[in-house]
Amino acid sequence: MRALVRTDAGTVWKDIAAVTCGPGQVLVQVSLVGLCRTDLAVAAGRIKVKTPRILGHEFVGRVVSAGSDVRRISIGDKIAADPVLRCGRCDRCLGGWQYACPSAEFMGVDVDGAIAERVAIPEQNAWRIPDSLDDRIAALLEPVAACAAVMKAPIGKTQFGVVFGHSRLARLTAMILQSRGFENIRCVPPNEAPTETDAYDFAIDTEGTTDSLTQLVDCLRPGGVLVLKSRPLRPLALDLKAMLPKEHQIFPVNYAEFGEASRLLLDPAIDFASLLGDVWSADQSDQAFQAAENDAFRKHFIELTSVPARPPEARTQHQCVPSSDA
Ligand SMILES: [Zn+2]
Ligand SMILES: [Zn+2]
């Protein structure tokens, strides 16, 4: 089968051995994969991976085979996935901290991903999606789970909040909050520093830079909540001297529960369509990555139904200019 693989020479379509379905797993015929910053960073070498590595983690497809012990998912189901594979048995997994499982592995980074004709994933990572839902929206499951995680923070619907950032993640976060009754939030792009000082009850950072944290500490009221919703590749500095007198609460958030995220995908109050970019065929994967790199506001997708029959040599060198790591 064909898969888009990060190799030492670049990112290329390769013929690889067909995957099969092990115990507890479902085998998925992939139809569509969304590209996110993690994929761009792997393709461009900003995130180092063990090669060869199949890229991609935001996918939708149909289950074509299932291990005999699989109960919750059936053959024929349309599914999207939680891309973090974990043991499911350790104290953290059983205690609700599965993303901190010592053996947690991220698809497309630590283990092979989903820009492939088929992918096998544990049943616990598969989430059933109604057939009627647009594949492009279904493939947003992981970013929706990531953005909806902000609702874990101790923030209230009537409070005054700021979502800081200029990206689809910032927009999606704000739309999810608004759909949940948060009416008093402002979206501020990073080139417009939040002008309020000591005003906001909570501030959500989606930029992940030292500058963004500095600005948000300044605009939060004493006792305010700083929600960290970005995954910068490098450590950031935090000015504790400015922060301590105001005794801010810092709240890093990772993922909402994926079942909750899959229900959010069906919520007509959230304008997912405004986040959708283009769908590229597999033989346009170069253009797809370039479009995703240039477009911070819309999600771009690769359709897997048209996987190229022959490898287009090693021409797919995604030499993207390193920008923000956020
Ligand atoms: Zn992602
Ligand atoms: Zn575990």
TrEMBL record:
One of its GO terms (molecular function) is L-threonine 3-dehydrogenase activity. PROSITE patterns: ADH_ZINC (PS00059). Gene3D superfamilies: Medium-chain alcohol dehydrogenases, catalytic domain, NAD(P)-binding Rossmann-like Domain. Its EC number is 1.1.1.103. Coiled coil: none annotated. Transmembrane segments: none annotated. Residues 22-131 form the Alcohol dehydrogenase-like N-terminal domain. Keywords: Metal-binding, Oxidoreductase, Zinc. SUPFAM superfamilies: GroES-like, NAD(P)-binding Rossmann-fold domains. InterPro entries: ADH-like_N (IPR013154), ADH_Zn_CS (IPR002328), GroES-like_sf (IPR011032), NAD(P)-bd_dom_sf (IPR036291), Zn_alcohol_dh (IPR050129). It comes from the Bacteria. The keyword Amino-acid biosynthesis does not apply. PANTHER family: L-THREONINE 3-DEHYDROGENASE. This is L-threonine 3-dehydrogenase. It comes from Stieleria neptunia. The lineage of its organism: Bacteria, Pseudomonadati, Planctomycetota, Planctomycetia, Pirellulales.
